[in-house]
Design goal:
The chain is of the alpha/beta class and about 500 residues long. Helix content is about 40%, strand content about 10%. Helix 9 links the parallel strand 7 and strand 8. Helix 2 runs antiparallel to helix 3, helix 5 runs parallel beside helix 6 and helix 10 packs across helix 13.
């Protein structure tokens, strides 16, 4: 096995035992990026010099006999919405090209304290608005399982970079499915955490009441290791409660026997791909073999969750995008402006992409005088009903399992001209986002066309250790990583 194909745990063991150096590991990943990224388009910025310098510093520490943590010296990628001091951060939008943050995001600081080796910034839908990474100003990212198909969105860049072994792990964001969908489309685990479990400070906002930061790795245990470092209270983010962070790695190995897994009937919608449905059914049978009880549950307001999401999300996008005027960053308008307002109109018209403009206009309309009560306020009321459904269901079950997407990875360009078709890809991920609870994407197999299939394990709020525990037990039982690998 090549060094870049190792997991976090394997890398950590190799570094501690001096089987290889952090520089060796970093060079292996950089070589892989050089070999395949032209086809994948996972990275938008490669920080080779930064990565090698960080790796050299780690190797000096190891040579001195200093203790290293599980993430020390291990090369990673960051979605291009994480502020990185001295490194361009664009949210994959023309309007932010040239922006170099003066400080790191809180999560980046935590990783740096652990001895992070940053390979670069990865592709995303513009300001994370999308489900296929096709709205990025850098073009779409493709899944390493089939280069004609999308990697999912909006965290398609980090997912593809991990699945293709360009890096060992990465960080993504999930507002309506943006970690889980790419996880399913690229065949890797990825965790959408509870709202507030990980600080959002320094991460470019899309929809402030829905955004969450999460780990993406090659195994569920890798996700647990990353979360251990980035979770917790942050004084720079008032939405992070002062709740104790569990020892995820010790919790993850507990036996799942006797736990109850719920199967929400509302997730098995008309039009759900047969192979995806069969994969979830097989996963449920596997849970039974592991000694878990299975119980059908009902979440009656789930059918409204997508509509709720696509009212709340554009409203918050509209508010958050108001700060981008195209004056300090981006190329600016191509022609001269008559006054400041004309400059704003021209800069934003040329700086923002079509999908972002759609959401800004939809959100601005829904928030406008006379419509706020009818749309945004009503959506928040229905959101409360959706939350109550999940709270009631979790009184009966420990976790729930459900499909992530109604379809397998689709071809690049297939849905790009039909926004409604793209929005419907989110139908099975947005309910969890609206509720603000954790959900783990776990790969479960491949289709007859060798495309990855995954499902999600959903847990109560701030019970990430529980979904990781169940996901780890399932992953060990089926051995996905040992059986299947991308074609690239």
């Amino acid at each position: 096995m090549n060094l870049n194909e190792l997991t976090i745990e394997q890398c950590h063991k190799g570094l501690k035992e001096k089987e290889f150096s952090s520089v060796d590991l970093t060079k292996a990943c950089l070589q892989r990026i050089s070999d395949v990224d032209e086809k994948l388009n996972a990275f938008v910025t490669v920080t080779e010099n930064v990565a090698l310098k960080q790796a050299e510093e780690v190797d000096k520490k190891i040579a001195k006999g200093e203790q290293i943590s599980p993430l020390t010296g291990i090369p990673c990628s960051l979605k291009d919405v994480f502020s990185t001091k001295g490194i361009e951060t664009t949210a994959c939008s023309n309007i932010l090209k040239g922006y170099v943050p003066p400080a790191d995001a809180s999560t980046v600081k935590k990783l740096k304290n652990e001895g992070m080796v940053l390979l670069g910034k990865t592709n995303t839908d513009e300001f994370t608005c999308g489900t296929s990474t096709e709205s990025s100003c850098f073009g779409p990212t493709r899944t390493p399982w089939d280069l004609e198909r999308v990697a999912g969105g909006s965290s398609g860049g980090p997912a593809a970079s991990i699945a293709s072994h360009e890096c060992i792990y990465g960080l993504g964001t999930d507002t309506g499915g943006s970690i889980r969908l790419p996880g399913a489309y690229c065949g890797i685990p990825g965790l959408k955490v509870s709202y507030g479990r990980v600080s959002r400070s320094g991460v470019i906002s899309m929809a402030s009441s829905l955004d969450s930061i999460g780990p993406m790795g090659k195994t569920v245990r890798d996700c647990a290791i990353i979360l251990q470092t980035i979770a917790g209270k942050d004084v720079a983010d008032s939405t992070t409660p002062d709740i104790e962070v569990p020892d995820y790695l010790s919790e993850i190995e507990k036996d799942v026997k006797g736990m109850t897994v719920g199967v929400p009937k509302e997730y098995f919608i008309k039009g759900l791909d047969d192979e995806i449905k069969q994969s979830v059914d097989d996963a449920v049978k596997q849970f039974e073999k592991l000694g878990m009880k299975v119980k059908e549950v009902s979440l009656p307001h789930t059918k409204y969750a997508l509509a709720v999401y696509y009212v709340i999300c554009p409203c918050e996008v509209s508010a958050n995008m108001a700060r981008y005027d195209g004056i300090r960053f981006g190329p600016g308008p191509k022609e001269s402006a008559d006054d400041l307002m004309d400059y704003y109109v021209k800069a934003r018209s040329q700086g923002f992409g079509d999908e972002l403009k759609r959401r800004i206009m939809t959100g601005t309309y829904a928030l406008s005088s006379g419509y706020y009560d009818a749309y945004y306020l009503k959506a928040q009321k229905v959101r409360s009903l959706v939350i109550k459904d999940y709270e009631e269901a979790f009184k009966e079950v420990d976790v729930m399992v459900a499909p992530i997407a109604p379809d397998l990875p689709f071809k690049v360009g297939e849905k790009v001209d039909d926004p409604l078709k793209l929005y419907l890809v989110d139908v099975l991920t947005t309910p969890v986002s609206v509720v603000g609870i954790p959900s783990l994407a776990v790969p479960s197999g491949v289709s007859k066309d060798n495309l990855p299939i995954g499902f999600q394990i959903i847990g109560p709020r701030f019970k990430e250790e529980r979904v990781l525990q169940v996901g780890n037990a399932y992953e060990k039982a089926i051995g996905f990583r040992e059986k299947y690998q991308p074609t690239l």
